[in-house]
């Protein structure tokens, strides 16, 4: 870095630099020793404090580290070394926004260390600060123009700012520079960069130019599949149907199992809206080219109407072939056509006719699979008795087939008997203990039957169980098995509500009810804890992208990188996450109501409550230990029952801030879920943030009633918000007016009175 | 179906449940759980599952015994006592169970299992196979005769008494291989 040794006015500074060198060489203990000497003389030496924080972090004293960093920043917030160290610290603890601030400060305060720019760019990507990212990438490129990755990175930053032209011209520039120097090992990266550029050009809407570029660079593109797919798509968009159809035929040759190629080919040939007979001819032809491919056989079933004689013939051909071959997925394959109930009944008649007339001519497994098919059919149309009848026949015939047990358990589950369903699933599991699929199914059904611990034991047969762990819970968290975490959380929630209901029955005073409440408390804590572990997993998903900001530039996989960034931006709309939040927030609301009630209760009963609480804690010890032994994911877990977390939530601020951050996150990323706006509405209404509640109400009504059919539920909620504002004495008059105006503009019927609104919103 | 329709595979600790269910639905007799556990534990046990187009449909289990030991009842035949006398000289293989799901009979599944156990017998340098059949089980009696077994004159009285079968006597069948 610095060639000649600088001369420092203070010995502390010199010492600190030396310690820094040691720190960089990972000699943390030695560095710490030097720094401690410094701090003995000068307690507020900022650089030393910062270094001490970082060394402490590296040496594993993580809880002490931040304090030193904060003190260092207090004493030297304009010292770029201190800034840099603070940035490093916050990056290590994965607090990216804070890290970005201090890296930026290091640059602004005059650090000449160019790698800081690179690190800052990564942090800006992580925090989606695209505006500043561009400048940072530009500066770094100027310092290191010899690497293609830096040019690509700059182009990506332009792209993310939606400055497509700048992105394309950056990529053009480096292409021109590097052309002469390309070697064989660079060619794949080059090909990816070219495709990336073309995809940006396409994004600007200039399809003709994209096609031109694609054809010009054809020889340089290694990813031939993408090349062909892009080319076909461009041609289609440009109206060059004939040429496009040729490319789609080429693509079909490569992969005749890709259904979308057939559909695109039809668009290119202009047959999509033709009579079924004409389209059928095309598919028959294609089927003769690719006799083993599935799409040319199944796609005609989608456009042939149920009444068409060919439909029955084709469907019979398709379904019966699979039944005779013993394909377990026969029903699942044909199920897409069940959205048309005419087609469903034709399909049923096909299988029934076969079942009645021909089944005896085939080997016994065909009989089983036909029964299996019919049972699935009746389950789908919700005639559970018939479904049960068929599956029992199959089971009697071949009681050794695992699939039959799975289906029977499903049917029984639909009839509402979760316990019996889990027994059946367990019986199926006993047939083949090394079948992971049935193991997972059995686990899930045990969860549904509220046998949470049995379920964990069951799934633990397939996890890596450390010697000191009671079961595979720890491994399930490491493996990010969200479904088990969510199912167990939901199981504990149900147990919690069960216990609450039981306690109510027993009456508040009885001895027994305290015991019941103990259990309820434990289940509540466990449910919260499991839900929070899903939150943690998603935090990991979010943090995991950090490495890819640099990695993808280096290896040149920019197209996939952009995809990943887009995916991460919608990460929290993943269904399993939203499901977890649904359960989690419901419990949090429960805690909140409990808190509100205890506040409004009179002092006398408060005393009583306190006493009760004390009692609970006492009994808990024994019970707690008992439960703990079974649920503890690892002995290192400090809060195995989630009681600590639960008590933290009882201090209302934590609960509210948690709820608020979830509401904000979902509003931003999962706006197309009804649940998001349900949650937001309830939260803001409770928090008396009526304007935000109004916004949530409007978003909600758009999802709940997309065709604006004026549903009664919408009308009711409008009135609910109106009366909430009216009854709230503390509300600011201006705010009340804004809300009223907002409601009237969104729901004009309201301006003529509540009754008028309800008479319109009556559906 | 291109693959051979009937195939065999070992009984393992993981598919014992399958073995058990085949016996339960096919045979009027009940085997204790310990018997199933022993079938994968003891070296003197030989057992095999049969599959019909990949569905498990049949199972066989036999063990090495000395023919001079009397087997007065089904319970003795399936008890661990028979296995613990490891020092005895084995001179025969005794078939404890042979079952094929009713829907899959007459398709060569049982024959394949029998062929397999004959091979196993020879590999263990034993040349006699023996078994008991319930006197009312006409289907099995015919089948074993067809396969070359000789019915012995002796009838074991009350062999299946504790299993509560009507007419609880049993015939002994033997074959030299």
UniProtKB/TrEMBL annotation, chain A:
<protein>
    <submittedName>
        <fullName>Uncharacterized protein</fullName>
    </submittedName>
</protein>
<dbReference type="InterPro" id="IPR019734">
    <property type="entry name" value="TPR_rpt"/>
</dbReference>
<feature type="coiled-coil region">
    <location>
        <begin position="606"/>
        <end position="669"/>
    </location>
</feature>
<dbReference type="Pfam" id="PF13432">
    <property type="entry name" value="TPR_16"/>
</dbReference>
<keyword id="KW-0175">Coiled coil</keyword>
<keyword id="KW-0677">Repeat</keyword>
<dbReference type="InterPro" id="IPR011990">
    <property type="entry name" value="TPR-like_helical_dom_sf"/>
</dbReference>
<dbReference type="InterPro" id="IPR021183">
    <property type="entry name" value="NatA_aux_su"/>
</dbReference>
<dbReference type="GO" id="GO:0031415">
    <property type="term" value="C:NatA complex"/>
</dbReference>
<keyword id="KW-0802">TPR repeat</keyword>
<dbReference type="Pfam" id="PF12569">
    <property type="entry name" value="NatA_aux_su"/>
</dbReference>
From TrEMBL, chain B:
<dbReference type="InterPro" id="IPR016181">
    <property type="entry name" value="Acyl_CoA_acyltransferase"/>
</dbReference>
<keyword id="KW-0012">Acyltransferase</keyword>
<keyword id="KW-0808">Transferase</keyword>
<dbReference type="GO" id="GO:0007064">
    <property type="term" value="P:mitotic sister chromatid cohesion"/>
</dbReference>
<feature type="domain" description="N-acetyltransferase">
    <location>
        <begin position="6"/>
        <end position="177"/>
    </location>
</feature>
<dbReference type="Pfam" id="PF00583">
    <property type="entry name" value="Acetyltransf_1"/>
</dbReference>
<dbReference type="GO" id="GO:0031415">
    <property type="term" value="C:NatA complex"/>
</dbReference>
<protein>
    <recommendedName>
        <fullName>N-acetyltransferase domain-containing protein</fullName>
    </recommendedName>
</protein>
<dbReference type="InterPro" id="IPR000182">
    <property type="entry name" value="GNAT_dom"/>
</dbReference>
<dbReference type="InterPro" id="IPR051556">
    <property type="entry name" value="N-term/lysine_N-AcTrnsfr"/>
</dbReference>
<dbReference type="GO" id="GO:0016747">
    <property type="term" value="F:acyltransferase activity, transferring groups other than amino-acyl groups"/>
</dbReference>
